[in-house]
Here is the input.
Amino acid sequence: MAFLEQHIHDAPTSFWSKYIFSFDHKVIGKQFLWFGIFWLGVGGLMAMMIRWTLAYPGVPFPLIGGLMFPHSGGVVPPDTYAMLFTMHGTIMIFFAITPILIGAFGNFCIPLMIGARDMIFPTLNMLSFWFSMLSGLVLLFSLTLPMGAAAGGWTSYPTLSTNIGQPGAGQTMWLVSLFLFGVSSTMGAVNYITTVITLRAPGMDYFKMPLTIWGIWLTAILNAIFVPVLGAGLLLLTFDRVFGTTFFLAGAAATSGKGDPVLFQHVFWIFGHPEVYILILPAWGITSDLLAFFSRKPAFGYKMTALSLTAITVLSTVVYGHHMYTTQMSPLLTQSFMTLTMLISIPSAIFFANWLGTLWKGSIRFHSPMLFSLGVVFVFGLGGLTGLYLASTSIDLYLHDTYFVVGHFHYTMAASVLLGGFAGTYFWMPKMFGRMMDERLAKIHFWATFIPLNGVFTGMMVLGYAGMHRRLYNPFIYEFLQKLMPINKFVTYCAIAMGVAQLFFLWNFFKTIFGKNIPQASANPWEVGTLEWTIPSPAPHYNFDEIPHVKCGPHEMGNPNLKTGRDYQYQTEELVKS
Amino acid sequence: MDISIPHRLIGLVAQGSELVVKASEQMSLWERMQPPVDISTSGHLIHWLFNYTTYVNLFWFALVCIGLFGFSFLYWEKRHKKALYTHGNEKKHLMITAFIGLGVFLSVDLVITKVTTRDMKEVFWNFPVNDPELVKVQVLGQQWAWNFRYAGVDGEFNTADDVVQLNKLVVPVNKKVMIQMTAKDVIHAFYIPNARIKADAIPGRFSKLWFDTTKTGNYEIACAEMCGNHHYLMKAQLTVLNQEDFDRWVKESQQIAIATNDTENMDLRWGWKWESR
Here is the structure.
């Protein structure tokens, strides 16, 4: 593979060029990580308020309620409630998951794992982070507006999100913020795609790349194609709000001309459904690699897994209509979307079989990254299978917009992605910061997260099956939902437990980075053979003194012919044959 | 966040939650998990498919769990020191994987797609437009209420004698009811949990659905699509009467409509000519 010459410049010396406006992919990756963890906290706190309101309607939010909602005696008011779930969705998807899984791991892992010294466009990379920052600030600022931030749901369907339903500036700020975010994502995506294509070290064929890179690369392709579609929708909606156009206005609301609110849904979900896979693909990639690393054997059916991920990527672009069954598209369209959606189960079944095949007859080491990866297999199993109910048009008549949907998409997008993100963080921590995280705290963190997590999201599906619909400030004004009070309380308790469990992570994370007397990690603490582990920890300036030459696959472990005393071999070594 | 809300509202909410606890103290968890009573003739189709999906899901998820927990137990480093060196790309491995993929396709995709298609075609999309006894109702969703319109004595919609109701839908038992709907301001979704049915009411568009009831009584209608801060208050009542009571109700309401409808008030004329498709 042809590769571009990668020059080594001097390391930056000033604080600003080293930590703030850095061109270094590793620093940018860490910036995204901090950014993501901050927003994860904000979004998590919002989730607590939402859950509290559903379990204790009319009861003041404990501790900080009085401070935050003084006009209602500490109770979350209905308008704030709408704002909270809108912001929770927006923040978690765009400002927590995307920066951590794509921004942090994408930036950090791509050059290190393909044997490059940096991303191909370092300036674009830096800009990508600062555009994210800008968009985050706009969103944060919108929370302080007198009429509040956007409150029309994270999907912001018009006409609710036009001036009819959202007269305040919050919704416009939301649009501006997401547009900026889209710019940032697109810049990142272009950079990732090009880097993987052009900067792979000599010998690093596509089918020798770690599956993490496969996941991130496919994500970047989806991002580059579909984020601009969202951008178009956001722009049109902004025009409707600011310049008085009527792209999405109809009915009594449209004083002139006639648009169609459903048009926005099409535009939104053309982006929105691939977005689900944009979020999950990196986590799948990380999981596929880690399962092999900690089972001490090559990934089972590596090529099939990579191809299944690709097949899912392609299919994900043509299934978006299953979000819109209740808008009553033509039966032909509805049927086609249902059939295509169902097809996703085949490649999913294949890589699930391969994941289990990887564990089969391994020699499994239950370190914390492995525990989290096994967790991904479990929760994505549940999340994927429950999607089958919702793909069916007739079941969807009953379950659409109920908590069943909420439980399902949290299993796929929140639970699996979160666990995958933690797996990655624990795994690459030594390479990022040169220190190992506390393994005991990490294991406590896993169990304290995993058990309540299932309580929360299974509980939600039970609520949905019993008929509870979404986005209700107080579900119990409906008689048929009143019996669900105890289940709602249970879900809330689990959510609080899961929230508290994250303190173990935060403590561990900060202690490792800033604590004193933390031993330095060795170059290869997990004993794996991908390229990032051939260099010291933390990864040095410009990563590789010599661009490595790749000679074997990423998971060459347990080879009986190895005579080196190790059970793994580096990708730079010739595959040992008998 | 300094928008005040009426304290009265919060009082109501708190009061409501006290009532809740009393009403359902005696229920078992299993009873709580059940959907509301099914009053429709089509709901069992949804439940059959739901249950079928649950059984195949349990089967496949059990396999995942056996692999996940079984292999984790058997091949723990301390029990199984030497990993088997295989890339899983031999013919037999590919066969197993392909077999699993095929199994999923046959047991899940094929059945669900087929049954759904059949149910949609024969029932949910098969609108009873030619049923001579069809009860026709027009629905307008608005922030935050449901308006219902019956054709009145002349059988024509959007005329001065229409019976117009706020948050109250009355239908006869065992008769097919067809609803055409739209929305005034933002998108709403017309949701009758007891009939297992739902459709969006969208400004500038007509949506339609039909259902058929089997039990008399009072049930709830909800808005399922986020439609603003008071989305949760957008609740209406569905009253299913036996034929006699319904006929009496129709007669009375028609008389009231003729006597009280203000023919000058154009706000009452939100209806439209019934779409016969």
Q: What stands out?
A: Strands of chain B lie at 135-142, 145-150, 163-166, 168-172, 176-183, 188-192, 197-201, 207-212, 217-223, 235-241. DSSP finds five helices and ten strands in chain B.
